[in-house]
Specification:
Blueprint: E1 6-11, E2 14-19, H1 30-45, E3 51-56, E4 62-63, H2 70-74, H3 76-80, H4 86-92, E5 96-100, E6 103-105, H5 107-110, E7 117-121, E8 125-127, H6 141-149, H7 151-160, E9 163-165, H8 166-169, E10 177-179, H9 184-196, H10 200-213, H11 219-234, H12 237-247
Parallel strand pairs: 2-3, 3-5, 4-6, 5-7, 6-8, 7-10
Antiparallel strand pairs: 1-2, 8-9
Length: 255
């Protein structure tokens, strides 16, 4: 894979994408977006990969768009979706874990809100800076931020444009863990390993259910969607392997 603005590595069942513009605090560019997209798709197509971790090189995670003018900022959503729908890619992908090591603002924040898990360093900082640029948030972040933080805090973040420490947001649901900086990737890899041992098709099904049912008020519809996928699961080799492993008193082998 030809990359200049990310690093891409695979170690066992875990693929790691590292945003690699440390002198610019990994500020977002269209090329970085395309490279991330390609790395995620490559991971999805690789049966050996179970989980994808995204982190940043140096002091920052992603300090928003590398703005060369207002047009670059306005085109952010179009560029992130150049290969299709970014949010759709994240939700249909193998599990995505953001390991946020530093500044995570603007598109740096909105692009990871559709991820499955977010782990933050105690040095991480988060901000929805769009209002400061006379813009509105993108990438369905006004949905995902409310889902993660609740309406009150999401409104405060978006309307104030303030920078928040990870400690201020701890316990509000934005991320799945707050750890010392030197433990960030260790914790992200631990979570990845727990998930990667599970079967890919069922992981994707669960992601679909969580995405569609999380805000569905009709419980009959929720249960119908679950039952449709449950029936499919019963016919899969993964379910047969799980049953066989249970009867043989061993761990199932899904990969």
């Amino acid at each position: 894979m030809d990359t200049t603005q990310i690093q891409y590595e695979i170690d066992g069942p875990i693929a790691t994408i590292t945003l690699d513009r440390p002198k610019r605090l990994n500020a977002w560019t269209p090329r970085m977006s395309r490279e991330m997209w390609n790395a995620i798709e490559a991971s999805n197509e690789n049966p050996a990969v179970g989980v994808i971790i995204v982190t940043g090189a140096g002091r920052g995670f992603c300090a928003g768009a590398d703005i060369g003018g207002f047009k670059d900022q306005i085109d952010t959503q179009e560029e992130l979706s150049a290969g299709g729908d970014w949010v759709g890619l994240c939700r249909r992908s193998k599990p995505l874990i953001a390991a946020v090591n530093g500044a995570c603002v603007g598109v740096g924040m909105t692009m990871i809100l559709p991820f499955d898990l977010i782990v933050a360093s105690e040095r991480a900082r988060f901000g929805m800076f769009f209002i400061k640029m006379g813009l509105v948030p993108e990438l369905a972040s006004t949905h995902f931020l409310v889902q993660r933080l609740g309406f009150a805090k999401a409104t405060e973040m978006c309307l104030s444009g303030r920078l928040y420490s990870a400690g201020e947001l701890a316990g509000m649901g934005l991320f799945n863990g707050l750890v010392p900086p030197d433990e960030l990737l260790t914790r992200a890899n631990e979570l990845a390993a727990e998930i990667a041992c599970n079967p890919d098709p069922q992981i994707r099904m669960i992601k679909e259910l969580l995405g569609r049912n999380g805000t569905e008020p009709d419980l009959a519809t929720v249960q119908m969607r679950e039952m449709e996928l449950l029936k499919r699961c019963y016919e899969t080799p993964e379910h047969r392997e799980a049953v066989k492993a249970f009867t043989e008193k061993r761990s199932p082998r899904f990969r």
